[in-house]
Amino acid sequence: MTPRHLLYLGKDGLTAYAWQPRGLVRQGSFAATPGGLADFAAYLKARRKAEIHLLANLRDENHQVEAIPYLGRRDRQAFISRKLDRLFPGTPLTRTLSLGYEQGERRNERLLLSALTQPSDFAPWLDCIATAAAPLAGVYTHSQLAAGLLKRLGELPQRCLLLTRQDDALQESFIVNGDTWFSRLAPLPEGTEAAAALAEEAVRLRHHLVGQSLLGHQDILPVFVLDLPPILDQLPAAAPAARGLAFIPVDLHAAAARLGVGPLPEGAGSAALFLHLLATRPPRRQFADRRLRRHCLLRRFRRGLFAAAALTCLAALSLAVKAFDDSRALAAETAELSAREQELAARQQDISASQPQVAGDEAARRRVNAHFAELERSRRDPGEAYRSIGRALDQAPAIEIASIEWKQAPAAGSSGRAESIAVEGTLAAGLPPRQAAAAFGRFVQALEQDPSLQVTTRRPPFDPWSAQFAGDKAPGSPPTFTVAIVRKAAP
Amino acid sequence: MTWLPLLPQTCRSIALALAVVLPALALAYAGHGGREQARVDRDSAAASYQRREAELRQMAGDREERDRQAAIFRRLQASGLVGEPAPLEWIELLETLRQQLLLPALQYELAPPAGTGSGDFDFHATAMRLRLQLVHEEDLLLFLERLQQEAKALVLVRSCRVARLPADAAATPPAHLSADCQVDWALAYRKAVAQP
Predict the structure, then answer these.
(1) A245-251 and A221-227 as β-strands: parallel, antiparallel, unpaired?
(2) B157·A381 Cβ contact <8 A
(3) Contacts of A305 in chain B (CB under 8 A)
């Protein structure tokens, strides 16, 4: 954990504490004198690595609630700066808290503007810090931490008052919706009973708040009093009843125990609780500007930079290790592939050596094989044609075949071969023309039933337009016919 | 101006961070480069191996094809389709078939062989005209079938004309049909190598 050093600035000077998980450890007190400042400078020089949080408990703290129009970011910043300069001139220690936007058309933004109006009280200490180049994380006030304290103790109404005693002064914080809208550090007069002083201040403050319209006349204001039991025991008697105040005592030691503060350092009082809160949950907004916090900002930048560098380094080294590992695996794979390729090359060489290449002889054999294969493919014989004609004759017994001329011929329009068959025949003698024609028709029809045959009648036996039969003109001779058949075999 | 004195420290921090990060990034980059190169080498070796494997498969395929072609050629040689024309053997076969099939008559005419070819082998086709007398057309088909099976050549029937014969009671055996066929006897034979 980052070492934390807490500086408590009161009216009597500055007290330094170191925060540790087991509790606060007081490390020194410094007066606002040249000697005290020199001691403080030496103190800072020895602790330059730790971030410093400065908690101020001085009277000059002012708060103002303002409404500004809805503006863009840059314009808003400039507007707020001008307003702060106007409200709190001459102090760089200011704080701005947005209270949200009003409902309605204009959407004005409500701001809580706070400032430490006596920068001269801080100047010597801040100069020492700047000279020592110590990392100042922020400047905070009691009132800033008041709401956080009550919230941690489990008690935070919408509006309330917190009273704490410190350094013979009474710190009063008026809290609205978790933010301190008004605070005051009132001196406790000497000889006054503490409880009575607390009660009187509470009444006075209620009047002031009613006058400022921050509280209604009839409102009951809860008043949390953080103090030691002897004071708290006197409170009921000292606090007047039915004056719009409801006093709620909060035991300092019990609260410290509840917050986990540990043993209270001597003389710290309620400041120890605020310092513990500051160490464990510092508010986001505080009073020091970037110029005052420059060393801390630089330190955080360097820490972030080194953290990013370390992460980047780690990632890069992881990637490098992975890449080298992958390279090694790939190299092993490459070696294995090369070895296997060499084995294949050796086998290839063995095969080549065992088979003497006689390329020319081999090519010639392939040509011979191809030649005879082509002859076989195109070879035909008349057997199937004869059988087709025989089957047709079975259906036309009156037909007598005189000759069959079979030839092998190239088929038109295809790469195959066809057979051309010329059939010459006669019809039985003495057959009446009608029967003869029918017999010839049956014969041709029977041939055409074979899908592989294309039948053309060249010369029919009977010409119906002639008084005589075709064929021989000699009367009484049997009619003859010629049929041409083309047979295509399947490829 | 209050920030200016912080500049050297800031620059030192940035320089230190870079001094740590840059070598690590360089190492990562070198590793990446090395891995890419190793990947390229591996891919190249894999491609080379696959090429070699494909060549070996091709060699095995070629060998199988060579063996198949050689087997076909040997069958052709055994069948007599590769070799010198042997017309005397053909004539003897014709006579044998005529006797076995009891063909009434068989006449033949051989034409001079016609050749084509290039390379180591010539392809010859000897045309033959066959004139047969048959009892039945099946005799012709049987004759042609036996001729194609037993001839030491590839016998190709080009044309056949079968015609009915006038009845002749005196012929022994009686012939009812005549067949006039053109066949080719196809052969391939190796050219003689010219002597130096």
Answers:
(1) parallel
(2) yes
(3) 13-14, 17
